[in-house]
Automatic annotation (TrEMBL):
It comes from the Bacteria. It comes from Acetobacterium malicum. HAMAP family: Polyphosphate_kinase. Gene3D superfamilies: Endonuclease Chain A, Polyphosphate kinase middle domain, Polyphosphate kinase N-terminal domain. The keyword ATP-binding applies. One of its GO terms (molecular function) is polyphosphate kinase activity. This is Polyphosphate kinase. Keywords: ATP-binding, Kinase, Magnesium, Metal-binding, Nucleotide-binding, Phosphoprotein, Transferase. The active site is at H436. Residues 332-496, 506-675 form the Polyphosphate kinase C-terminal domain. An intermediate of this reaction is the autophosphorylated ppk in which a phosphate is covalently linked to a histidine residue through a N-P bond. Coiled coil: none annotated. Its EC number is 2.7.4.1. The lineage of its organism: Bacteria, Bacillati, Bacillota, Clostridia, Eubacteriales.
Length: 702
């Protein structure tokens, strides 16, 4: 039965989030790092519901009943996911209350309720409420003349049950009201520190507000106050074929996201049955979509909290990315790239080099044009500032901004408008396809003619996430790469069905077939008695066609090592099917985001980097690039990266044939964290670069 060969992608994603949660439980991590991992699991789960669960619910609502590749109907998937997420959220709160909070207490950090405060603390709370909270709070009563309002997505609210003490006749009726906890208020508030004490006390703002809500409802008795939080369908539904202006349509859809259908209601466990029933009715929530939680809602607030300066000793020191030794204090970045292809390994090597590349191009009088794709950029992007400067300096600047980058649409719209105002030619993606490839093209007039400089990457041009995600980027000035990237930019900005690439492969036209050819070649080599080997590192592996090809390769005897951070629908170690396949997953300080594809090819060792995972959406519904790394020194670096990653014994989990992930048995093995290893390696190379520069300066000084 085919379905037994595949793991449901949504279940696989939840398994990934469990691996992140495992890091929150792991006492080998410092306590604030554990709190960070807990916050990440909460943020992940919010997005999972807004997109994946919402999508399944949409399928059910329109009567779609086709089984997924693993054999589950949408109704069966939803039931399984609701059960798993109920358990996961319970485990999140158990992790917080039973594991992390006790360790925080040991470090003299406490979260207090109002009733636990001393007199000084209660005076502070009253003053804070009246002067900081009261002016921005808006109580919303619900009655016949004031219907239940539209509550915001993923926002914490208080639900308040009231009794009218001034009714002229005896009135047994309870009144309901809600109160938004505005995001302009700090969610976790530091309480005054006692003189000479090392104890740090904190209170959640809703716990500070609750005792004083009677001041918002004079003449009423407050009978009950509880938190609730709603998650809504956050997937944008845009009819691109009918949209006259994609930018306008997406701006409208972003607003609609705030008011999408309710798909999950979180409440505190001590909420009365009457209040729960009322909320469920008003929000149109069924029992399976109700989550009763033991503690303050919205654990994502701990991401900001754990980053406070007073906790520096309770988390691992932040790693500072270092300039690659090949680019350390270079005077002419174009000369360095002309000399040979260059590779950057982020975040170990600084993304600043990519920024410097665009900045150098923006002010270089010999540069004629700059073209770049942008998928997700930071709120204060130095890359975009450089592109704006380039346009102002008279360069021809073309920027392909993907407006449909989920949850970054608003930010991308802002930047797109700024780029247009500066004189850049801005292209807003393509109908039906997301532009997900990562590439920069700089056209420069030199003494021997026009030369094209190219940067191709596996990750976004985002200076913030480049310090948090592992990614790879390659610079090249080789003509065939420049020719291909020029052609691809022209294809994206104009009309073309070009597929005769010299170096790169492009989804959705040629990339899938290129992967199939490479896998088939390994199969043929094994059949001929040669060695066959594939190593592939990516974020997700859920494409049915690719998985079937890998099963075919394994059955032929090809050795396959997969490094898949997140979703993986393939099952390794199945007798007669995938016994030559291993699946590794690494969850560590940095998010593993790079995509590397290695094929032994009779010792030629073909290595490709890509913006694409092995997912149907990447191979069929996105513009993606797959590019070969041909410089032998760079291939050596990439093989080294794969080798060290596969040797990780500290942060790696291995998937079993059942889909379960287990930690590596460390007995008799070297303890190695690949991320720590690459940090130390980058530091050593940086020191070599500094010493080389000092030596050069001393020689010149003599």
């Amino acid at each position: 039965m085919k379905s037994r060969l595949f793991i449901n992608r949504e279940i696989s994603w939840l398994d990934f989030n469990y691996r992140v949660l495992d890091e929150a439980y792991d006492k080998c991590n410092l306590v604030m790092d554990r709190l960070k991992f807990l916050a990440i699991t909460a943020s992940n789960l919010d997005e999972f519901f807004m997109v994946r669960v919402a999508g399944i619910m949409d399928q059910i609502n329109v009567g779609y009943n086709k089984k997924s590749v693993d054999g589950l109907t949408p109704i069966e998937q939803l039931a399984t996911l609701n059960s798993m997420t109920q358990e996961m959220m319970a485990r999140q709160y158990t992790c917080l209350s039973k594991s992390i909070i006790p360790e925080l207490n040991q470090n003299k950090i406490f979260f207090l309720r109002y009733e636990e405060l001393d007199e000084e603390g209660k005076d502070f709370a009253l003053h804070y409420f009246r002067h900081e909270c009261y002016p921005v709070l808006t109580p919303q009563a619900i009655d016949n003349s004031r219907p239940f309002p539209l509550v915001k997505n993923n926002q914490v609210y208080l639900c308040i049950m009231l009794h009218d003490t001034e009714a002229k006749v005896k009135d047994e009726k309870d009144y309901m009201a809600i109160l938004e906890i505005p995001k302009v208020l700090d969610r976790i508030i530091a309480l005054p520190k006692a003189k000479g004490s090392e104890v740090l006390n904190y209170i959640f703002v809703e716990d500070l507000i609750s005792p004083f809500v009677n001041e918002l409802f004079t003449g009423y008795d407050v009978k009950q106050v509880n938190e609730f939080r709603i998650t809504r369908n956050g997937d944008l539904a845009i009819d691109e074929d009918e949209a006259e202006d994609l930018l306008i349509e997406i701006e409208k859809s972003i607003q609609q996201r705030k008011w999408g259908a309710s798909i999950k209601l979180e409440v505190t466990r001590d909420m009365s049955k009457k209040m729960k029933k009322w909320l469920m009715h008003e929000l149109e929530i069924v029992e399976s979509e109700l989550y009763e939680l033991k503690g303050n809602l919205d654990l994502t607030c701990f991401m900001k909290f754990q980053n406070r300066s007073e906790f520096n000793d309770l988390r691992e020191p932040r790693y500072t990315s270092l300039i690659s030794n090949e680019f350390y204090e270079v005077e002419d970045i174009f000369e360095v790239i002309r000399e040979k292809d260059r590779l950057l390994h982020h975040p170990y090597q600084s993304f600043q080099t990519v920024v410097d590349f665009v900045r150098a191009a923006s002010i270089d009088p010999e540069v004629l044009a700059i073209k770049q794709t942008l998928y997700r950029v930071s709120g204060d992007s130095p890359i975009i500032e450089a592109l704006i400067q380039a346009a102002q300096n008279g360069k021809q600047v073309t920027v392909l901004v993907e407006l449909k980058a989920r949850f970054d649409e608003a930010n991308n719209i802002i930047w797109a408008k700024k780029l247009e105002q500066a004189g850049c030619h801005v292209i807003y993606g393509l109908v039906g396809l997301k532009i997900h490839c990562k590439m920069i093209l700089v056209v420069r007039k030199e003494s021997d003619g026009i030369r094209r400089y190219v940067h191709l990457g596996t990750g976004n041009y985002n200076d913030v996430t480049a310090g948090l995600y592992t990614d790879l980027g390659m610079f090249t000035a080789k003509e065939n790469y420049g020719s291909d990237i020029s052609t691809l930019f022209n294809l994206l900005s104009g009309y073309s069905h070009y597929t005769l690439w010299k170096k790169i492969e492009v989804a959705p036209k040629t990339m899938r077939n290129a992967f199939y050819i490479a896998i088939d070649r390994e199969i043929e080599n094994v059949i001929m008695g040669e060695k066959g080997k594939i190593i592939a590192k990516m974020n997700s592996l859920v494409d049915e066609g690719v998985i079937n090809k890998l099963y075919e390769a394994s059955q032929a005897g090809v050795e396959i090592q997969l490094i898949v951070r997140g979703m993986c629908s393939l099952k390794p170690n199945l007798p007669g099917i995938s016994e030559h396949i291993t699946v590794h997953s690494i969850v560590g300080t940095f998010l593993e985001h790079s995509r590397i594809y290695y094929f032994y090819n009779q010792g030629k060792e073909d290595i490709f980097l890509s913006s694409a995972d092995w997912m149907e959406r990447n191979l069929n519904r996105r513009i993606e690039t797959l590019f070969p790394v041909e410089e032998e020194s760079l291939k050596k670096k990439l093989k080294h990266i794969l080798d060290i990653t596969l040797k990780d014994t500290i942060k790696t989990r291995l998937m079993t044939e059942t889909g379960e992930y287990i930690r590596i048995d460390k007995r008799g093995k070297e303890l190695l964290s690949c991320q720590d290893y690459f940090c130390k390696e980058a530091e050593a190379e940086f020191e070599q670069a500094k010493n080389r520069t000092v030596l050069k300066q001393n020689i010149e000084g003599e």
